[in-house]
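Hey all, quick one. A colleague (J.T.) asked me to put the 2-acetamido-2-deoxy-beta-D-glucopyranose job into the tracker so the inputs and the C-alpha cells live in one place instead of scattered across chat threads. No bug as far as I know, just bookkeeping. Sequence used:
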Amino acid sequence: MGNHKIQWHLIMDFVCLVALGVAEMLIHVIPIKPSHRGFFCDDKSLQKPLQEETVSTWLTIVVGFSVSISVIILCEAVNAKSKRRKQQLKVGKFNIKCGPLICTPTAWQRRTFFLLFMFGFGALITNLFTDMGKVTVGRLRPYFIAICKPNATLLNCSQGFITEDICTGDPVDVLDARMSFPSGHASFSTYCMVFLALYLESSMPTKQTNLVKPFLQVAFLSLGLLCSLSRIFDYWHHWGDVLVGMFLGTLVAFFITFRSLRLFSSPPCPKCYPTDEVDFVSRNPVNNSEERADLNGDNQFPL
Ligand SMILES: *[C@@H]1O[C@H](CO)[C@@H](O)[C@H](O)[C@H]1NC(C)=O
Ligand SMILES: *[C@@H]1O[C@H](CO)[C@@H](O)[C@H](O)[C@H]1NC(C)=O
C-alpha cells in the first residue's frame, strides 16, 4: 500500500508547483521594468481614452477559479455516485499521514484533487507565459498617451519616433501601460473556460440528454470570450494582444487535458502504465472513459 513510505513523487510534484508559483509571484513582487518602447507622435492607436475596466482583474481570477473548481468537484462527486463509476474506482484503502493528521481520501477525492492540481498548474503556466510576454515585449496599451501625459515642452513631434522617457504621469501606471502584450485577462479566462469545456466533454455524465453538455460548454466558453473581448472595447488591449492571449490559454488547456491528464486517451496504453515509480503524470492517468479496464492499485491516483 505504501502507507509507510515517504511519498517522494508527491513531494516532487508539490515542489514543482510551488517553484512555478514562486516564479510567477516574483514577476509581480519584483518591479521588473518592461522593455522601453518608443512610439510615434501621431500614433492614433495609443490615443484612446482611459476607461474603467468592465471586467476587473480580481473578478476574472475569482470567477475563473471558483467556477472551474466548483464544476469539477460537482461533476466528480456526481460521477462517484454512479454505480458504474463506483466499481471503476474501487481501490484499496489509502492513508495519508502528516504528523498527527491522518486522512483517508476516497478514490474520487483523489481523482478530483489530481484534476484540480493539474488545473492550477496549467493556470500558473498560462500566467507565467503571459507575464513573460508582457515584460519582454513591452507593448504600449491603447490608452498609453492618456496615462503617460507627455511633457509638452519635451515632446517634439517633428522627431517622429519618440524613445525618450517624457512621461509625467504616475510612474507605476505608466509601467503598467507598457505591458499590453499579451492580454492576461484573455489568456487566463480562455484557459479556464477551454479547460472546463474539455473536462465536461470527457467527464460529464449525460444520461439521455443531448444538449445539456454542449449548452454548458458554450455558456462557459462565452464567458471566457466576453471577458477577453471586454479588453478590446475597454481600450485596455489591442486586438492582437487578446488574440494571442486566447491562443495561449487554449494551447495550455489542451496540453494539460490531453497530455498531462489524458482525459481522452482510452487505456490500456502501455506507456501510460510504466512501472517506473518516478513518472508522476503517466503513472496517474486520470481517465474518464466509461470503459476503464481495471484499477488494480493505489498507484492510479495521486495521494
Ligand atoms: C517638462 O520638461 C521641462 C524641461 O526638462 C521641465 O523644466 C518641466 O518641469 C517639465 N514639466 C513637467 C510638468 O514635468
Ligand atoms: C524638434 O526636432 C527637430 C529635429 O530634430 C529640431 O530641428 C527642432 O528644433 C526641435 N524642436 C524643439 C522645440 O525642440
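Adding what we noticed when we looked at it: Residues 48-84+106-142+180-260 form one domain. Residues 268-303 have pLDDT under 50 and may be disordered.
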